[in-house]
Design goal:
- It is found in: Cell envelope.
- InterPro entries: Peptide/Ni-bd, SBP_5, SBP_5_dom.
- This is Oligopeptide ABC transporter substrate-binding protein OppA.
- Residues 1-31 form the signal peptide.
- By secondary structure, the chain is of the alpha+beta class.
- Helices cover 29% and strands 19% of the residues.
- The chain contains 17 helices and 18 strands.
- The protein has helices at residues 15-18, 65-74, 121-132, 143-146, 152-156, 186-190, 200-206, 260-268, 283-290, 317-325, 329-337, 367-380, 399-416, 427-436, 454-457, 474-485, 489-506, and strands at residues 45-49, 79-81, 87-89, 92-98, 102-107, 167-171, 174-178, 222-228, 232-237, 251-255, 294-307, 342-343, 390-396, 419-425, 441-447, 509-520, 525-526, 543-544.
- Strand 13, helix 13 and strand 14 (419-425) form a beta-alpha-beta unit.
- The longest helix is centred in the C-terminal third of the chain and has 18 residues, at 399-416.
- It is globular and about 70 Å long.
- It starts with 14 loop residues before the first helix and ends with a strand.
- 48% of the residues are buried.
């Protein structure tokens, strides 16, 4: 399906020019364009399955696509990113950089919050400071450090107050960001939901309740209308959105249906227009039955099992390596899933940002060879028939996660004599358990925040707030630090390859597979994008064809 944008177009500059400091004056953003000859339905409403209940709708407290799926409709940032990695204007109409270290963003005249009040440069400054403020306790507080914003590291370490962050308002319409070092993919990172401006007045007035429908103030094409926990969330058109003229839908409903089978059944019953996914066991039959309603596209993400690296016996690299070797990733990707997912032997999916990394030599071994090596490692760590290894494997409630966990536990038992006791919790509960460190091994995944390998690799830095396994390795951190100052793409690739090699050797997690995006989409839904590399669905792009 061809990309559909607004009638005003912006010819993106080549990446080589984007990083030279030239002034950009882009004009277009994500928007729905209805082709000639298409008749719109009188009812412009869409129902999506979100697969789970969001833990929050505060952009600074969110950490997964369960939340971001909704936040991407409620809020916008300074820029957005198209399918080819080019920055498009949102709240900022233009920007320029000086040596890729000082970036100046010029806000659109007259932009407003959903309550009609003005969005100003001070709102952007407040929001970035709130994200990094230790009192906010954001899971994404490290993001501004990764982004290279001046003083971010010192603020996270408690050595400076948040108001010393390298961002300031030059006037009501101009925001200036100073970096500690140039980053070529800076604009791609600025589009992330954690950097969406939030309304200070609403937060100070309502505190933790500011995200409730009656209180929330947002900036995107839609605004929150209702939130019935574990039932549905609805959003309606935000007439104060700067590009409201190019929005077609009037309402979007998000359902928290965790069962993929129920998701499909409700789709067939006409209760859902876009499913969250497609059950693996039904994929082939649904493809035959529904044809073009089955949409499979790219999705930069990695599914993995994370070890609690600070807890015995998983603080022993031999145990982690053995459990990694004992899983047959090809069977999980091809047989348990079978929608086009690929077995993962590196954290970073192939061709992320144009890079592909070599896997460890064990990736080319037979499973029998891996099993034999794993048994040696377990024996050296003190585990065997007389002292078998038993641990808990935690996953969030979902049929697919359950099927993968059953397959993994069966492989560990058959191949290594290891017992994995399966535990499942609801998404929000599992996040709490994970962040508190009360687990042995936990199912997790990382979806790209931007199209560059560092989005995957940075999560395992020693001081990263999303470092769930609590992995610590100075050489790993050093390799990623060096990549920031590398003078060529070949040098960057060398540093990233070193980081991947360390992850393979230390095995803080077991990457299982790299994602694809598989959804059922009603034939009357127009504007659906099959090619977004991050699998994002923007409600603003959609429209309902008369049917």
């Amino acid at each position: 399906m061809a990309m559909q944008k607004s009638n005003t177009t912006f010819k993106a500059l080549p990446r080589a020019l984007l990083v030279t400091g030239l002034c950009l004056s882009p004009l277009a953003a994500h928007a729905a364009t209805v082709p000639q000859g298409v008749t719109l339905d009188a009812k412009q409403e869409v129902v999506r399955n979100n697969s789970d209940e969001p833990a929050t709708l505060d952009p600074h407290k969110s950490e997964s696509d369960v939340e971001f799926n909704i936040l991407n409709d409620l809020f916008v940032g300074l820029v957005s990113i198209d399918d080819n990695g080019n920055a498009l204007p949102e709240l900022a109409s233009s920007w320029q950089s000086q040596d890729n270290k000082i970036w100046t963003f010029h806000l659109r005249p007259g932009i407003r919050w959903s309550d009609g009040s003005a969005i100003t440069a001070e709102d952007v400054v407040y929001s970035w400071r709130r994200l990094i403020d230790p009192k906010t306790a954001s899971p994404y507080e490290s993001y501004l450090s990764t982004l290279g914003v001046l003083n971010a590291d010192a603020i996270i370490a408690g050595k400076m107050p948040a108001d010393q962050l390298g961002i300031k308002a030059l006037d009501a319409q101009t925001v200036q960001v100073e970096l500690s070092h140039p980053i070529s993919y800076f604009l791609e990172m600025v589009a992330h939901p954690s950097l969406f401006p939030v309304d200070r007045a609403a937060i100070e007035k309502f505190g933790s309740k500011w995200t409730q429908p009656e209180n929330i103030v947002s900036s995107g094409p839609f605004k929150l209308n209702s939130w019935t926990v574990n039932e549905r969330i609805t959003s309606v058109r935000n007439d104060n959105y700067w590009d409201n003229a190019h929005t077609v839908l009037t309402k979007i409903t998000y359902l928290p249906v965790t069962s993929s089978t129920a998701d499909v059944n409700r789709y067939k019953a006409g209760e859902i227009d876009i499913t969250r996914t497609i059950p693996e066991i039904q994929f082939a039959s649904l493809k035959k039955e529904l044809g073009d309603q089955v949409h499979v596209g790219p999705n930069l993400g990695v599914y993995y099992y994370a070890f609690n690296n600070q807890k015995a016996p998983f603080n022993d690299v031999r145990v982690r390596q053995a459990l990694s070797l004992g899983l047959d990733r090809a069977i999980i990707a091809d047989k348990v899933l079978g929608q086009g997912q690929t077995a993962a032997y590196t954290i970073t999916p192939k061709n992320t940002g144009g890079y592909t990394f070599a896997a460890a030599k064990t990736a080319s071994w037979t499973q029998e060879q891996r099993n034999a090596e794993a048994m040696k490692l377990l024996a050296a760590a003190g585990f065997g028939p007389q002292h078998p290894l038993t641990f808990n494997l935690l996953y969030n409630t979902n049929e697919s996660h359950q099927r993968i966990a059953i397959a993994a536990s069966s492989m560990w038992k058959k191949n290594l004599g290891v017992t994995a006791v399966l535990q499942n919790q609801e998404w929000k509960t599992m996040l709490d358990t994970m962040h508190q460190g009360n687990y042995d091994v936990v199912r997790y995944a990382w979806m790209a925040d931007y199209n560059e390998p560092s989005t995957f690799l940075n999560t395992f830095r020693s001081d990263n707030s999303e470092n769930t396994p609590k992995f610590r390795n100075a050489d790993y951190d050093k390799a990623l630090d060096h990549a920031l100052t590398a003078s060529s793409k070949d040098e960057v690739k060398k540093d990233y390859q070193q980081a991947e090699d360390i992850l393979s050797a230390q095995a803080p997690v077991v990457p299982l597979y790299h994602y694809v995006s598989a959804k059922l989409v009603k034939p009357y839904i127009g504007g659906f994008d099959d090619h977004n590399p991050q699998g994002v669905v923007y409600a603003k792009d959609l429209y309902v064809i008369k049917h």
